[in-house]
Amino acid sequence: MKEKVLIVEDNKILCDTLASILQKEGYSVECSYNGKKAFQLIKDNKFDVLVVDYKLPDISGWVILKKFLKNRKYPSAIMISANADNSIKECVTRKNVLFLDKPFNNKELISALNSISTFIKAG
């Protein structure tokens, strides 16, 4: 089994679709449709990778990202957004987080996750 992934995306259809794609690739996946549930899942579980939307209705994806990355040795997150400006993209990149503009295709997501998997396995 590949890494355990948490997807935080308020668009339920998109979140479930991404989960299905990643499960077919062998990843263990959980979805959260809001930030509050994401915080609880992060607290109660050990996820290897976070895929988080920048704009959520209750909590910024940036806040969730910072909580998730605390005390991590390797890049382990992908931020996604349809409308993030360049300053957000630059901040994310400085944190060694991958960024995907919506819409993105399945190959881009899988490639990003494979890159993270390489870092995780290298330990």
Describe the structure.
This protein has about 120 residues and is an alpha/beta fold. The protein has a single domain, classed as Rossmann fold (3-Layer(aba) Sandwich), CATH 3.40.50.2300. Helix content is about 45%, strand content about 20%. It is built from five helices and five strands; from the N terminus they run βαβαβαβαβα. It has helices spanning about 10-25, 35-45, 60-70, 85-95, 105-120, and strands at about 5-10, 30, 50-55, 75-80, 100. A five-stranded parallel sheet has the order 2-1-3-4-5, sandwiched between helices. Helix 2 runs parallel beside helix 3 (about 60-70). It is globular and about 30 Å long.
Topology, number of strands:
5
Strand order in the largest sheet: 2-1-3-4-5
CATH architecture identity? 3-Layer(aba) Sandwich
Within CATH, the superfamily carries the name Response regulator
Top keywords for this entry?
Rossmann fold; alpha/beta; 5-stranded parallel beta sheet; 123 residues; 20% strand
Question: Would you kindly provide a brief summary of this structure?
Answer:
With 123 residues, the chain is α/β, with parallel strands linked by helices.
